[in-house]
Fold:
Amino acid sequence: MNRAQHQLMQVIQKIPVFDGLSLDQAEKLIQISRFKKYGAGDTVYAIGGVSNEMLVLIKGKLSVLSASGQPLGEVSVGNSTGEMGVFTGQNRSATIVASE
Structure:
């Protein structure tokens, strides 16, 4: 396991949606994970978009925006976003933008 994967493992163990995963299951999850970098202002997910992935934030901060662009909240390090759409198959219900 490389350094980034080890860091992700530490984060995953603290996220409620992954609670109960065995070490083997968590390692398999990490193996299929992709690492992406976003700059401040980059759109991560757009409202109405297809929900075919989720994100676990390792560094930085994300802003959650309504359809009109109003701030709804923030996603901080160690939290996930996009999981509900992945589980339900529904399109994105908010826009997520990198703020840091």
Remarks:
- Helices lie at 3-12, 23-31, 83-88.
- DSSP finds three helices and six strands in the chain.
- The longest strand covers residues 71-76.
- Residues 43 and 97 are 4 Å apart (CA to CA).
